[in-house]
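> example.struct
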């Protein structure tokens, strides 16, 4: 058989198969079978009617005695506060030691962990300019309070020194779009 005829046949078969599946022809329920001539039903002999049984009415239940209302005790008065309530200590889920020890660590930990954990910081690697943009974005879009200039400079310097872009341990990524 000629190779071109064989390829043409495979192409036609594949096309019909794909279009048939896409159009939903495969997997449809089979069409109803043609109507077969009805056979006469067998004769049914009627049975004599059953005698009617009349049941006696059920006796009425005995009347339920009325329940006496229940008296609940009065609620006890709330105790008067003896001293001013103390604030619960803030429980930090991760230690500050998880961040590198450097100037600005305390400010960074205090401000950043108010909204997210340090994993978000530790896996980021940005330049100082990009960290500055991230801080602006957090103020504008995420509702972070505007930081004082000194605090912002401390955090920005800490992030730029300790979470700067890293070189790949295997060298340059050939797929990066630098």
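> example.seq
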């Amino acid at each position: 058989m000629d190779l071109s005829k064989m390829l043409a046949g495979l192409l036609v078969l594949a096309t019909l198969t794909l279009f048939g599946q896409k159009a939903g022809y495969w997997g449809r329920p089979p069409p109803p079978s043609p109507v077969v001539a009805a056979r006469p039903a067998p004769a049914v002999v009627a049975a004599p009617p059953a005698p009617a049984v009349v049941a006696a009415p059920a006796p009425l239940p005995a009347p339920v005695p009325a329940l006496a209302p229940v008296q609940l005790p009065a609620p006890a008065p709330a105790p008067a506060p003896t001293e001013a309530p103390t604030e619960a200590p803030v429980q930090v889920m991760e230690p500050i030691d998880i961040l590198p020890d450097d100037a600005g660590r305390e400010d960074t930990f205090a401000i950043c962990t108010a909204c997210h954990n340090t994993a978000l910081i530790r896996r980021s690697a940005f330049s100082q300019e990009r960290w500055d943009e991230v801080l602006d974005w957090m103020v504008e879009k995420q509702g972070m309070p505007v930081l004082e200039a000194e605090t912002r400079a401390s955090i920005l310097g800490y992030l730029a020194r300790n979470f700067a872009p890293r070189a790949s341990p295997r060298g340059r990524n050939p797929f990066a779009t630098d």
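> remarks
DSSP finds five helices and no strands in the chain.
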